[in-house]
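Action item from last week, closing it out:
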Amino acid sequence: MRILVDADACPVRTIIVREARNRKVPVLLVCDTSHRLEDGYSQVFTVDKGADSADLKLMALAQPGDIIVTQDYGVAAMALGKGLRALNQNGLVYTADNIDQLLFERFLGKKVRRSGGRTQTMKKRRPEEDRAFESALRRLMEEAYGSDQ
């Protein structure tokens, strides 16, 4: 098991690294050239700027048993399609039961924005979101350890 992170603008990298280090789980951070990441633990993969370059690299690196952390519903859908576990920065675990609805909501949001409308703005991150993420990550790691044995 490894943890792969769609690391561009990921607000929970320190939580991921702390939890992974405690369990000796490798972390792979994927970002584009507009970010420079180094935490002394993770393996960093830097890709060219491009619409889907980080997403494609994440999926190329992914292996059975890995956990993917991403805000991107498309990446989450691909991860689920490969049989991986996936969650977002707020602790939402992506599943076969919720991914279709999330992708549909993303489609509707893009449609509204293309027609000149506005969608919800990002709110300031709250500590309870960090706690929810940490709890979900720990749960997925425990599930993965159980399936690896």
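Closing note: The two ends are 11 Å apart (CA to CA).
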